[in-house]
């Protein structure tokens, strides 16, 4: 079983993400958040039914 990452690993991951994405990090985080919200909406089935013409 793989252990959960601790604080040092999370810090290293954050530094690597900052180096890779830099100025685009807010955009990447925003799009990731929107993707998670859409995924949760899909699981709940909150979409209104479509009317086929």
Automatic annotation (TrEMBL):
Signal peptide: none annotated. GO terms for biological process: protein transport. The keyword Calcium does not apply. It comes from the Bacteria. Coiled coil: none annotated. InterPro entries: TatA/B/E (IPR003369). GO terms for cellular component: membrane. Keywords: Membrane, Protein transport, Translocation, Transmembrane, Transmembrane helix, Transport. It is a single-pass membrane protein. It is found in: Membrane. This is Twin-arginine translocase TatA/TatE family subunit.
């Amino acid at each position: 079983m793989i252990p959960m990452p601790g604080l040092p690993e999370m810090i290293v991951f954050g530094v690597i993400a900052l180096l890779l994405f830099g100025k685009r990090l807010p955009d990447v985080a925003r799009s990731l958040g929107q993707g998670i919200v859409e995924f949760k909406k899909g699981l709940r089935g909150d979409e209104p039914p479509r009317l086929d013409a």
